[in-house]
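Researcher: Next sequence.
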Amino acid sequence: MSQSAFIKLVPASTQQSITLDEVKELFHYYKEITSKTGEQVSWQYADAAFPYEVEQKEEGKDSWFLLKATSDRYKYIIVGVGTEESEENKEEATSYIQVVLPEGATYGDKGKANEFCKFLAKKLSGELHLFNKRVMYYYKRK
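Model: Next structure:
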């Protein structure tokens, strides 16, 4: 059975909506900063920190993409974007990023997915709903 985690963009977030291309750019940024860390410690850290390739499927062209593993310890993670209507105000919509661990995903995939979720939530000052249904707040609360 697949599991999902959500990064919700709340009013206190750095931005209120996000596109699939912006999420891909954040993953490229993540790969870039981890490779710089690897250069500093003289180790190929980028390959270990991000053992995936971004693969865009035709059926999910505007809503999701696949992170396909380049290492045998991992398999794949699905990342998508969407919006949900607010319960209080039907006109107001909340954007979110959904990270899905499909059936067949390994424990390594789950660890990396948690790491990626925390990175995205921190970068966007969002509200992270983890796979275990716990919530982490990365925005300033009043």
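Model: Residues 20-40 form the longest helix (21 residues). The helical segments are 20-40, 45-49, 107-124.
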